[in-house]
Design a protein that fits this description.
elongated; about 130 residues; 4 helices; five-stranded mixed beta sheet; Ribosomal Protein S5, domain 2; alpha+beta
């Protein structure tokens, strides 16, 4: 099997993954997943598609992450892994789609407008 690559995005985070057959090693920015995501919850989010399909331990995954925070990066990786699993086997798509792992969450931070302190907050109105 050749290397499958996919991309996932969430908020400002961009994850590029390279998936190949192996022993289940997950490397993020040349670091082990345990050192990159010390939180067990974020590691769980990353591994959700693999556990759903039942292929954890079968593929080595090399990930390049850029931008965003911890949660956004973890969800970007989840989307990228899901897309790669669909590229490998099209039969994985219904299960992943039912859990919402193939849906790109398009919500991003709204920009700040000029003449306002924040995106929607206005300065206090003074009648006199």
């Amino acid at each position: 099997m050749e290397t499958i690559n996919a991309i996932g995005r969430r908020k400002r985070a961009i994850a590029r993954i390279y998936l190949s057959e192996g022993k289940g090693q997950i490397t993020i920015n040349k670091r082990d997943i345990e050192s990159y995501f010390p939180s067990a919850m974020l590691r769980y989010v990353v591994k959700q598609p693999l556990e759903l399909i039942g292929v954890e331990g079968e593929y080595d995954i090399k990930i390049t992450l850029d931008g965003g925070g911890e949660k956004g990066q973890a969800e970007a990786v989840r989307l990228a892994i899901s897309r790669a699993l669909v590229k490998i086997n099209e039969e994985n798509k219904p299960a992943l789609k039912a859990k919402g792992f193939l849906t790109r969450d398009s919500r991003v931070v709204e920009r700040k407008k000029s003449g306002q302190p924040k995106a929607r907050k206005k300065f206090q109105f003074s009648k006199r």
